[in-house]
Design goal:
28% helix, elongated, 6-stranded mixed beta sheet
Length: 794
């Protein structure tokens, strides 16, 4: 969501700069992610007036316009269909840089020199409209800089609002937090309605057949409206919020939605089809055409606003084509309602639409904010459209939602925050946030329905904390107060993992815990899934049950942007539905991914990543924590190649799996290079880990190295061979490693040669050569017996 900086100043009276306002909001939990100058493309653009138009020889779509700048008259080539003599227009001088990195230069077109450009809204960066030039008001002073005339010395502030804070999807909601942060009062717009003697209930009635889908529906009537363009101040607020102005009636409903957070819809009463509004579910197979002229065949998932016979709007999503406001509209039926978020989400998905209204309804609007939104819109219709506002509104609200009350103990607030904040200040902060406080033995706080995210006492304490500012709460570690908790062993373990893996050349990614159920079903169909009742999007409708989807999505994104040499890791949770005991499962895991090339340097050439790079990163963790030798066994994992899919174990404990991502899976993520992947259980890793801090003396006795080359069937796992050698060598084997692997004609088809380096050493004495030879012979005999191995002469 985006809003004008000056609009927020208007609602609060604060003189903070845009960056300061953004920083304070972000630190309080309302993330402002961008600040863009509203007039970034208006430099060197002035108000001009078209004084003459002439045709250009040999051209049917362009004209030569003479534009008065107040100082001189310039010739400008213009191809807009709506240009006319006498218009006040935005004129970009030579040297101006417009949206899309367009620089205005003096050019000659068909023999006519053009010294500037008459601009559309899109070229000025004000909207996406490029159907014609922007036409200014007749009173625009010729020669005045456009940024001054349009009052666009402003900023567009972009906000990322969390799903639980639907109240922040409005200018008033954000301004309320700002006012509390600045210690000022919220400045709501003035509403001075002059209602006629005729009542709205004489012209319309409301019937709700689905009170679950529509707990509240209200209607107002405004007669004798005049349809026309909106004043610039209204257009500006909409354009800076990313909404295209249409006409004064539609613009007012959009403005009030942005201002209050309550979506509105205006019907042409004469085209509505009756004087009765009936809210019901669509019938199976019912036909409906939305305002965008698209036909739809509906199911009962869609909630409809009807005239008692047929649908006139898809509730909370989009109006119907037949009853929309037109240039001839004179009587408006104004709708404001509260629709169930789940119902709107299902209906929106079926229609394949995503609108500003549905975005808000899905996150929950304030059912008790409807009267304010209706009166505010009616007042603007009265002032800007010359409308006659009929008395009252028809309001169907079968089961009103009442504000709840929560007790807050000031001493609990002080203890939880570890700071000595006065009771008066606590009450003042909550009152400023629109949470009325009544004092007694404990504070009794009324929670308005626009704050559905506040459920208990600790939520209120969090509200106090975020307005005070987390940076202004004393450091719990230094005070050793009630917030102080020692660093948890799990946190220390995860921190060590990050250090080890980044040192090994891996970059950390942070997943959000959500996944696409369709991809999850293809990746690992056997795993159960936790489905979300109200997902943020169709592609994120489950809690992830494996980390592989996050890792491959990140890899695919990077590869698509030509970053093909990737080594990634993530420490994150996976989720499953309740088990046999009825408990939800949340399991922490570590994922590793390697693909592309390993970068080289002046001495070592770059080379393709190998499976051994993944194993090496894991081995570095094992060395740090003193793990027993890790063993690998072939096992089936759906998203890994069957011939290179391994179960990894430490002793008798399985800690995870690793291997090559299958070709089918890579194709699904549009990846055309080999990807190696591992995923381990974090708890199992931690249980087997202990930091080796004791000093180990350097060996005092010499080593006795031996090499062994054995030929075995190609299917024999090398890990089993190494394990057998370690077992037979016993305590005197300091290390056992593979140093060579060969397949080829010299050893025959279906065979492989494995080179093994064994270092014998005792910490108590020097080993005799004969003693080592006896052990070596036992190893050879056991290899022949178990694997039918042939000893290769070297």
């Amino acid at each position: 969501m985006q809003l004008s900086y000056l609009w927020l100043k208007e609602l609060t009276g604060l003189n903070w700069s845009a960056p300061e306002m953004a920083e304070r909001l972000t630190l309080s939990g309302c993330a402002c992610e961008s600040i863009e100058p509203a007039g970034a493309y208006l430099k060197n653009v002035i108000v001009g007036q078209v004084t003459a138009l002439e045709s250009v020889p040999g051209a049917s779509k362009i004209q030569k316009a003479t534009v008065d700048t107040g100082r001189e008259r310039l010739q400008v080539i213009c191809g807009a269909p709506n240009v006319a003599v006498g218009q006040k227009v935005p004129l970009a001088h030579v040297g101006a840089r417009l949206a899309g990195d367009m620089e205005i230069k003096k050019v000659t077109i068909r023999g006519v020199e053009s010294s500037g450009m008459i601009c559309s809204e899109k070229e000025l960066g004000l909207s996406a409209d490029h159907s014609g030039i922007m036409v200014l008001d007749n009173d625009a002073p010729v020669g005045k800089p456009l940024i001054e005339h349009l009052d666009l010395d402003d900023y567009i502030m972009g906000f990322e609002v969390t799903p639980n804070r639907g109240d922040l999807l409005s200018a008033i909601g954000i301004a309320r937090d700002l006012a509390a942060l600045g210690g000022v009062s919220l400045k709501l717009p003035t509403i001075a309605l002059r209602e006629s003697k005729t009542g709205t209930n004489e012209f319309v009635s409301v019937k709700i057949e689905d009170p679950k889908g529509c707990p509240r529906y209200a209607a107002r009537i405004i007669r004798n409206v005049r349809i026309g363009p909106s004043p610039w101040w209204l257009k500006k607020k909409l354009m800076l919020a990313g909404i295209r102005p249409i006409n004064n009636v539609v613009d007012i409903t959009n403005l009030v939605m942005l201002e209050s957070g309550n979506p509105l819809h205006a019907f042409d009463l004469e085209l509505f089809g009756s004087n009765t509004v009936v809210v019901r579910r669509a019938r199976e197979g019912e036909k409906f055409v939305t305002l965008d002229e698209q036909p739809h065949t509906l199911s009962s998932h869609v909630l409809l606003i009807t005239n008692g016979v047929e649908g006139v709007a898809a509730a909370g999503v989009m109006g119907g084509l037949r009853s929309g406001v037109q240039d001839t509209t004179s009587t408006i039926l104004l709708e404001a309602a509260y629709f169930d978020p789940v119902v709107i989400r299902k209906g929106r998905r079926e229609l394949g639409l995503n609108t500003e209204s549905s975005y808000r309804f899905e996150r929950g609007v304030d059912p008790n904010g409807i009267p304010y939104a209706m009166d505010r819109a009616a007042f603007l219709f009265q002032e800007l459209c010359g409308g006659e506002v009929l008395t009252g509104m028809v309001d169907s609200y079968p089961e009103p939602r009442r504000p709840k009350c929560i007790g807050l103990r000031p001493e609990r607030c002080r203890a939880s925050l570890g700071t000595d904040i006065s009771t008066d200040k606590i009450a003042g902060i909550l009152n400023a946030l629109g949470l009325p406080v009544a004092e007694g033995n404990q504070l009794q706080v009324t929670i308005p329905t626009f704050r559905s995210d506040i459920a208990n006492e600790i939520d209120l304490i969090e509200e106090v904390a975020r307005i005070i500012g987390w940076a202004n709460i004393p450091d719990a570690v230094s005070t050793n107060g009630p917030l102080y908790t020692p660093i948890h062993e799990r946190d220390r373990f995860e921190t060590d993992l990050r250090h080890i893996l980044t040192a090994a050349g891996f970059d950390e990614i942070l997943g959000h815990g959500l996944a696409d159920s369709r991809i999850a079903e293809q990746l690992y169909p056997e795993l159960p899934k936790v489905r979300l009742v109200n997902p943020v999007s169709d592609e994120l409708d489950i809690m992830r049950n494996t980390l592989v989807q996050t890792a491959l999505t990140a890899a695919s994104h990077n590869i698509a942007h030509r970053l093909t040499d990737i080594r990634l890791f993530e420490i994150g949770a996976v989720y499953w539905p309740p088990n046999d005991k009825g408990e939800w499962v949340e399991e922490d895991r570590l994922s590793l991914l390697a693909t592309g090339n390993i970068p080289g340097n002046w001495k070592v050439k770059s080379r393709p990543a190998e499976f051994a790079d993944l194993q090496g990163a894991i081995a570095s963790i094992g060395r740090h924590y003193g793990w027993p030798e890790m063993t690998f066994a072939l096992t089936a994992v759906p998203f890994l190649e069957s011939s290179a899919s391994f179960k990894a174990s430490l002793g008798s404990t399985t800690i995870g799996s690793l291997g090559f991502i299958s070709a089918e899976t890579l194709k699904r993520f549009d990846i055309k290079q080999t990807v190696y992947y591992a995923e381990f259980n974090l708890a199992a890793m931690m249980d087997l880990s202990h930091e080796r801090r004791q000093f180990v003396p350097l060996p005092a006795y010499p080593s006795a190295p031996r090499d062994l080359a054995v030929i075995v069937d190609e299917q024999v796992p090398v890990g089993q061979i190494l394990n057998l050698v370690r077992t037979m060598a016993g305590e005197i084997a300091e290390s056992v490693d593979m140093f060579d692997l060969y397949t080829g004609q010299q050893i025959g088809a279906g065979k492989k040669s494995v080179g093994i380096a064994i270092t014998y050493r005792s910490r108590e004495r020097s080993l005799a050569g004969d003693e080592v030879d006896v052990v070596q012979q036992k190893i050879v005999a056991e290899l022949k017996k178990k694997f039918n191995a042939e000893i290769r002469e070297r």
